[in-house]
Amino acid sequence: MTETLSPIIQASELIKLYKSHNLILVDASNGESAQRNYETKHLDGAISVDLNTHLTEIENDFSVGGRHPLPKIGNFTRTVANLGISHESHVVIYDDKNGSNAAARFWWMLKSIGLEKVQVLNGGPDEAEKIGFPTNSNPVTITVTDTIEVNSWNLPIAELSDVEKASQTKLSCIIDVRSQERYDGDFEPIDLVAGHIPNAINIPLTENLDHSGLFLSPEKLKEKYEPLFNHKGKDVIVHCGSGVTACHTLLAIHSAGFDIPKLYVGSWSEWSRNNKPIATK
Question: What is the mean pLDDT of residues 216-222?
Fold first, then answer.
C-alpha cells in the first residue's frame, strides 16, 4: 500500500470528520426496503446509492458478466459526478450489513477510478448511532461536480477465461467468499446450480469479522491472509455470487496491508451459467 489512510474507518473517527466541507457520506444499503429505510432514517448528511442502478448495469443474460456486472466506465463516472463526488472528496460509505451489502463494492469502484480518500464505516450506522452520530430523514442537497476523466477500471479484474485457467493450473489462488453451504453445494438460494469453482478455497466473508460483527484488526487480518500471498504471490482472485460481497474481502485484505487482489466480477453467477466444471464437497 502506498497510502496511509485505512480503507476502514471507525465510528469514533467519522464523528470527528462530521461537518467537514469535503466529507461525502453515503448510505449504500440495498434490498427491497432500503430506499424506504433511507427516507425514514439515515446518518445526517448521507446521500443514497443503489446497487442495481448506480453500481451495476444489469443485463438479461447473466451468463455474460453475471448478475451484477460493472457499469460502463463513462456511465459510472457520470454517476459519481451527479453524486457530488470529486478527487477532493473524502467519501465514507456504509450499509446495513457492515460493508457486505454494497458499501465495499462502491469503495472498490471509487478506488478503481482513482479516488484516494475512500473508506467504509466499520459497523455501519448502528456503530455511529451508539456514539451519538445524529440521524434524521432530511433530504440532502447534492452539488454536481465535474466528471472524473478515466477510461478504464484501474484495479485488477479477472475475466472468465482467467478464472478458468486458474481453476486448472492451481498457479493462482481463487477465494470463494460465499457461505460454506453454498460452496459445498448443499444450498444455493440465488443461482441455478450449487457448488464451487474447481480449486477455489472457501473463506466466507463472515470470517473477516469478530463476534461483534466488526472487522478484525489489520493485524489479525494480515495473519489470516498472509499465507495466501506468501505462497501464491500477487495472483489472488476473489469472487462471490455476483461480484458484490467479494469486495468485502478485498476491503479486508487491503486493510491488512496487501495490494487489492483481482476481483472476478461475474463470480458464481457467470461461471455456473457457462457449462464450466463445478465442484462440490
Answer: 98
Three-class SS of residue 167?
helix
Cβ neighbours of 136 (radius 10 Å): 12
Q: Record the pTM.
A: 0.97
> Is 178:241 a contact under the CB 8 Å cutoff?
yes
CA torsion, ordered 106, 166, 281, 231, to nearest 10 deg = -90
- Whether the per-residue pLDDT at 179 is higher than 60: the answer is yes
Residue pair 113/150 in contact by the 8 Å Cβ criterion: yes
Q: How far is Cα 234 from Cα 4, in angstroms, rounded to an integer?
A: 20
Residue 2 has pLDDT above 50, yes or no: no
Largest pairwise CA distance in the chain: 54
Instruction: Go through 12-30 and write b for each residue having 16 or more CB atoms within 10 A of its CB, e for each that does not.
Output: eebeeeeeeeeebbbbbbb
pLDDT at 147 over 90: yes
Q: How many residues belong to the chain?
A: 281
CB-CB neighbours of 168 under 10 Å: 11
Please check the confidence at residue 3 and state whether its pLDDT lies above 70: no
Closest-CA residue to 122 (of 140, 100, 89): 100
pLDDT for 114-132, tens place per residue? Answer: 999 999 999 999 999 999 9
Nearest CA-CA partner of 8 in 110, 86, 121, 94: 121
Interatomic CA distance for residues 244 and 177, integer angstroms: 10
User: At residue 234, does pLDDT exceed 80?
Assistant: no
CB 49 within 8 A of CB 106: yes
